Amino acid sequence: MLKKSIAACVAAASVVIAPMTQASEVEVLHWWTSGGEAKSVAYLKERLEGKGVSWKDFAVAGGGGENAMTVLKSRAVSGNPPTAAQIKGPSIQEWGELGFLASIDDVAKTNKWDSLLPGVVSDVMKYDGKYVAAPVNVHRVNWLWANPEVFKKAGASIPTTWADFIVQAKKIKDAGYIALAHGGQAWQDATVFEAVVLGVGGPEYYQKAFVELDMKALDSKTTEEVFKVFGELRQFVDANSPGRDWNVATSMVINGEAAMQIMGDWAKGEFVVAGKKPGTDFVCVASPGTSNAFTFNVDSFAFFKQSDSENQKAQKAMAQEILGSDFQKVFNLNKGSIPARLGMARDEFDTCAHDSMNAFVSSAQTGGLVPSFAHGMAVSEAVSGAIYDVATNYFNSDTSAAEGKKQLVAAVQSAM
Amino acid sequence: MTQNAHKRSGIADRLEAWLPKIILAPTTLAMIVCMYGFILWTGALSFTKSRMLPQWEFVGFLQFEKLFANPRWDVALSNLVVFGFLFIAISLLIGLLLAIFLDQKIRGEGAIRTIYLYPMAVSFVVTGTAWKWILNPGLGIEKLVRDFGFTDFEFRWLVDQEMAIYTIVIAAVWQSSGFVMAMFLAGLRGVDDSLVKAAQIDGANAWQSYWHVILPILRPVFFSAIVILSHIAIKSFDLVQALTGGGPGYASDLPANFMYTFAFNRAQMGIGAASAMIMLFGVLAILVPYLYSELRGSNRG
């Protein structure tokens, strides 16, 4: 009797355990838990399950992913990292240096990733010359969102340079509208600052000063000019802006309280949800002076070393799936960004996305394709944090341009 | 038989003597590891070049140098001084006054006491969010008064770099003064009536009897209140996060927010650990003299 029940227990246990050890599985850490983002992840899960790879969701909520990173660090240090985690930009290099990341170079070779991705993007995905991460999308950050109705009422035209921006914004302000819808949070201040850097200094200066952190470029006349323009923008923001969320600022443009917002292409989702049509109800153009440039913010999954060979296979299947044209299309339609991989069918994307795709390709050739420092793509978290501090403090005070430059140089130097 | 019983009671005695220690052991161990162990760990980290993960390469006081060279840390520290002083002083004053008024044997005391104590039951996040709306110029007080017809009225501390820290004082005082009131009320109830009567017989008016007789008796309550309030002040994190998010810019940052940002968002664990150590020393600077005076007092007694 006893023997029998023990045997039954063992049998039952092995039934339970068996699928866990035999079938391949990916455990994926991400923080895409809301709306369109959650839908996008669910699609990836579906695709993988169709291939016999089971998906263990490891979602840690919290928009910017700070919570997720804290969990990831403790898991990695205790020797039990997930299969893949949502990590982007130079953080991939930092994880690579610590020796946690697995090479998926064979997948990349067989699928010719080098020809599918622009060089600047694939560089971010590689550590020590080998692919360790796969990009899911490309956000363009240097967008200006405008409400044409407000422009018409104020008799203003959509600006294409920063000098023109100041002229037009004054007209709008005089007509009784808020010229620039803005949320006074550090990252939003940095997003606008970045647009000014790119528009005033151009891609070459941007690359030197804010990506390579060349002190000579950073400590130049151009930087002072950037701060001067950035400081001028203070007057076009309403007094209630500190602490405002970006989507609240977007809704001010949508309902005609404000004329413009400078924000990445995720803002498009807000317009679309409000039932607005691109081109007629709202306008998307490159932020002033940046029509030939593109600040990119690429989300990606980095892959962690696995000991189980089945899971290694599953990991590679996932990598392949992520860069597949089918997943790239569905994911980016949901999220408002554009596919990271080039040369895909475009018909289902809207006109803003088409503009973005064109700029992505053309700027990659002219050298105008640069990583966004406001969104953790260009420099380490320490340095981008230091830039955040200076930008947000400058924008909220009446510091002079020369002083702003001095603070920036000092902050970047001490954070390097 | 008798011997056996004796032996058994010996074991029982010993067990009884050991039982409290055995029961306390897990808690003590957890305390030693999770409190003091991690304090030491953080202290050690503050001398390393740790960035994203702990790295045991020692760099001396470099992180502390970087910390004090950082303008944001200066802002956080001076905010702590302003916030701590005003928060403690105003909470004490309001709490004491409320307690004295409530102690006048008024009707409905129970209900009023509950009302004043109630904010303590709300978390700092809720307090912060509510005050964020109340103080927002476009939503709260400023708009209300303007809607009443005073169109020039301005009250925009929340969005003013110079004044933002005072909004945190307002919200924190609102939350904590009821608690201080409860402490003082308990103290006042413990004051021996005959002392007050004696003072009145000696011809002291109400003001004099409070100032010269009752308040000196309440001295221990003052001490406890100050210690508890200064803890709250140094640890304040969620209130700032919810009310101003440290802004405008980083004008209303407190050291706890600084520490969190650098250790967890910015991958600068070394600087984060260094700032945590400075905060620890801040707490110790208040706690050690207090404990010293308390312990010396009880020894004497």
Q: How would you describe what is shown here?
A:
The complex is a heterodimer of chains A (416) and B (301). Chain A is built from 19 helices and 14 strands. Chain A is of the alpha/beta class and 416 residues long. Chain A folds into 2 domains: 26-139 and 297-353, D-Maltodextrin-Binding Protein, domain 2, CATH 3.40.190; 141-295 and 372-415, D-Maltodextrin-Binding Protein, domain 2 (3-Layer(aba) Sandwich), CATH 3.40.190. A 5-stranded mixed sheet of chain A has the order 2-1-3-13-6, with helices on both faces. Chain A has a 4-stranded mixed sheet with strand order 9-10-8-11. In chain A, strands 7-12-14 form a 3-stranded mixed sheet. In chain A, helix 10 (186-211) runs antiparallel to helix 12, helix 10 (186-211) packs across helix 18 (381-395) and helix 12 (221-232) packs across helix 19. Chain A is globular. Residues 7-22 of chain A have low confidence and may be disordered. Chain B is mainly alpha-helical and 301 residues long. Chain B folds into 2 domains: 1-45; 63-300, MetI-like (MetI-like fold, Orthogonal Bundle). Helices cover 75% and strands 0% of the residues of chain B. Chain B contains 13 helices and no strands. In chain B, helix 1 (2-45) packs across helix 13, helix 2 crosses helix 13 and helix 4 runs antiparallel to helix 7. The A-B interface holds A 64, 66, 69-70, 73, 76-77, 91, 94, 98, 184-186, 189, 238-243, 380-382, 385, 389, 392-397, 407, 411, 414-415 and B 51-53, 66, 69-72, 132, 136-138, 156, 158-159, 161, 164, 244-251, 261-262, 264-268.
Quick structural overview:
With 416 residues, chain A is α/β, with parallel strands linked by helices.
